[in-house]
Amino acid sequence: MVLGLSYLDIVVLALYFGVIVYIGIRSSLKIKKEEDYFLGGRKFGKLFSTFASFGQATSADGPAGVATTTFKNGASGIWSSLLMLFATPLFWITAPWLRRLQITTMGDFYEERYASRKMAVTYALVGTIGMMGLLSVGYKAVTTTALAMTGKSETALTATEKIEKEKADRLFELSNENFTYLSQAEKQELTELRQENPRALFSYFSEDMLIWTICFIVLFYTALGGLEAAFYTDLLQGIFIILLSIILIPFAWSAINEQFGGSGMMQALSHLHEQLPESTFEIFGSPATIDFTWYFIVMAALVSGMTVVAQPNQLVTAGAAKNEDAARTGFVTGTFMKRIVTILWGMVGLCAILLYGGKIMNSDFVWGHATTQLLAPLGLGLVGLMLASLMAALMSTADCLMITVSGLVVNNFYKYFFPDRSAKHYIWAARISGAIFLIGAAIITTQFDTILQILKFIWEFFVVFVAAFWLGLKWRRANRIAAWSSILLTFMLFYMIPMILPTVFPAMRTDENLTKLTDSRIVTRNYEVKEVDLENRKHDIAKWEELPKSEKEQIKKPKQLSLGDRYAVDYAMPRQAIFWSKSVSSAKDGTSYGRGYMYLELYLLDRLGWDLSKNPYALNETIRLGIRLLFPFLVLILIALTTKPDSEEHLRLFYQKMRTRATDNSSLKNQPITETLLFPNSNWEIYTWNKKDRNGFLLACLIVILIIGLLYLMVSLGS
């Protein structure tokens, strides 16, 4: 063993990274012009487009993240990565539009459509920051999992580390008790340990070391080989990602059968349902995620579906395809592959609840802990293969994002200040800007302890550009003034002002009107009593018996349960912050203060007389998302209708290109196939669907239904 890994694991890792570096060097020899670097010569077919889309959508935060949320919340935690499922059929229609644009970066769209170089520059700067945050999520996930895979044994711990681990074990023990039946002394001890937050796992590596190692490996092969290197490695890495999604499941089932008896998949699934509470298998409405309501899912899917198409990285896979059939097939197929493997990751999380529910304190370590426990004893190098697969998941996203951002910076920012340079000059500028992007994302990663706030912020961030993109494509009346107004007002009202105000006026964070929380609610659920419920109730009764006499008088003794009966469980839903992006916390002096940035739109509604504290947290979040999506569209439409339209000649050239189907790279010059307008005498560019459009969209909708059915099947088998 070396640094927690076997020699065979290290050999597997070395072979993998050797192949990656070789691909980068080979691809670099083919780069002659900018399009070769940024879009690989627009020559990729359905296979490479599929794995590029899959790799771009699937980073290391996918497997580890879904396993984490499922471990914490049960089957409903799978929705943390499944929201975009409902928007996937839309990509069948939008992917061809991105291919027809015939542009290098998404920033070029704003310059071409609105004849504004400055708008493209603005998009490049804001989009780069957004992509840095997006990549930092993957960095955080893979390093956390790698730390769990390379943990020190008990004998390798230093004296200081042993003391800290003992505290962490005690914190874990108290956290898993029913808080109601803890003594006052234990409650005080739990509070103090939570504030101290001792570590339970110590690795041979530091998190920062892992982040920078991965950063420079991606930087080397992608900076050399450009998008072609990224796409070839995405094909390899996509296979690795699928492998890691499957490899743990049979070993987890085997471990369950070994512990509880029996053999085979169905026996293991039966043990899951027999040993775990019924609430674990609720897909909707689980008490752990009671605010994850159907209406929030609908609104979240709508926002994510609208904004994701406007993100800089969406152009890469569609724009690099050799024709729009390859673009749409690859984009949609790769995205559906992500949804299917998400369900497999959820199965690992469910198995981990049964196997490690009383052993893992930090749920972020679930995937790494499961890998070490299930695969390391085999001695086949599978831990190294899993670590390589996780890094592949991260790097397949990082390389595409790096090329995306370097294209944005060079084409829409650098060329603005340094025009008319050689192709070789701009390719090297792209390599340098891509390096800065990767390093910037690594720096952002080191500044955060968790990924939840980063994910939420990035997911909503592109509402700033959503109206200018969609109406720019579909409404001829959208003009430059209206687009600028929509972009700037949305950015100022939802991001800039809410961040600046609490800094300039810090008293706002402690204002009692701004630190309101949602009202506390008791939610009651009825479940069938299982073996695990009997054991938990026996333990609760024993804890009650241990309480001092004075405390027993204040707490009612828990009743005995019988197997197969129905019993009611009351869940006290946590009070949530209404007007702050993070939370409302309590200072040592007892005062409350808001953390993060403000939600001005919700505060305005509250001041107008709608008491948002009476709403469920999910309803407030649904309202907020709806306002953020609707506002930029309303601004653009109102201002466009009251200002002068853009040049008709400019619009004619742009929409002529958008109406021409990109059947191959020369379709704009030879035998073009044009779209038919649904409303030919209006300003709306709505195209009639042909048989391929209609059948593909309906098939995609059917696949959505089948994937939801697969999710239900996964959680019901063995029940």
Structure explained in plain terms:
It is found in: Cell membrane. Keywords: Cell membrane, Ion transport, Membrane, Sodium, Sodium transport, Symport, Transmembrane, Transmembrane helix, Transport. It is a multi-pass membrane protein. The chain has 719 residues and is mostly helical. It has 3 domains: 7-151 and 204-470 and 698-716, Sodium/glucose cotransporter (Up-down Bundle), CATH 1.20.1730.10; 155-202, no CATH class; 512-616, no CATH class. It contains 26 helices and 6 strands. Helix 1 crosses helix 10 and helix 10 runs antiparallel to helix 16 (382-417). The longest helix has 54 residues, at 207-260. It starts with 6 loop residues before the first helix and ends with a helix. Mean pLDDT is 78; it is low at 33-42 and 665-669.
Question: What's the structural blueprint in terms of helices and strands?
Answer:
Elements: H1 7-28, H2 34-39, H3 46-57, H4 61-73, H5 88-100, H6 106-114, H7 117-149, H8 159-175, H9 184-196, H10 207-260, H11 265-275, H12 294-308, H13 314-319, H14 324-356, H15 366-375, H16 382-417, H17 423-446, H18 452-461, H19 463-474, H20 480-504, E1 521-528, H21 531-546, H22 549-552, E2 566-573, E3 583-586, E4 592-595, H23 600-607, H24 617-641, H25 648-658, E5 660-661, E6 673-674, H26 691-716
Antiparallel strand pairs: 1-2, 3-4, 5-6
